[in-house]
Amino acid sequence: MTMKKIFVSQRVDEHPDYGERRDALDQKWTEFLWQLGYICLPAPNHTEMVKKMLIDIPPAGILLTGGPIGTAPERDALDECLISYASSNKIPLLGVCRGMQSIILHYKGTLKKVEDHIAVRHMLDNGREVKSYHGYGPDILPDVLTPLAHSTKDGSIEQIKHIWLPMYGIMWHPERESPFNDMDIEFVGNLFRGLL
After folding, report:
1. Burial code of 105-125, b = ≥16 C-beta within 10 A, e = fewer?
2. Which of 62, 63, 86, 133 is spaced 20 to 30 Å from 196 by Cα?
3. CA separation for the pair 175, 160 (Å, rounded)
């Protein structure tokens, strides 16, 4: 049986000593998706190549990973490309941290600076405790996105859903839990199986 493939965006890391800009992906994402029964296909930060890949290897879903926003134009362009593809083809997409921020910006929402969300654990109003690593969070959500969870400490939005597409965003990092959290496994698995 052929395993389903998930396209996964990568951060851009600069290595000035070598004069290189590198695509980088935490190996834990590969393990997380493998545990769910999916193959992780890292998408290069090369939009034209990825458009061709999407034709040749249609994914079962798309995962937009974390990283700083607004520091790498090629990553911004890739996220736009993948969100547009997921929207047009109605395939599941999950945006994690920066990925959720990209979804909000794609639909013309805005972000704002948030305090005390970098490398901290905190509670959500849905009863979950999560670990976050972000300095910016949602400010104004566009009408097509609805909030699903907020931080109990400052009310900031921590989870969103598109109102008619299988598209979700979360501000926490499932890949940074050890072991992986069962609720994250269930949520991401259900999304990519088309059950959400």
Report:
1. bbbebebeebeebeeeebebe
2. 133
3. 18
The label of the residue with tokens 């109605």 reads 90
pLDDT tens digits along 4-30: 999 999 999 998 888 899 999 999 999
- Structure tokens of 175? 């890949």
Look at the chain and count its residues: 196
Tally the domains of the chain.
Answer: 1
CATH number at residue 127: 3.40.50.880
- CA distances (Å), origin 99, targets 15, 127, 132, 165: 23, 23, 13, 16
Round to whole Å and give the CA distance between 84 and 21.
25
Structural domain span for residue 67: 4-192
pTM beyond 0.85, yes or no: yes
pLDDT digits over 83-108, tens only?
999 999 999 999 999 999 999 999 99
CB 75 within 8 A of CB 97: no
CB neighbours of residue 184 within 10 Å: 19
C-alpha closest to that of 12 among 48, 47, 55, 39: 47
- The amino acid sitting at 195 is L
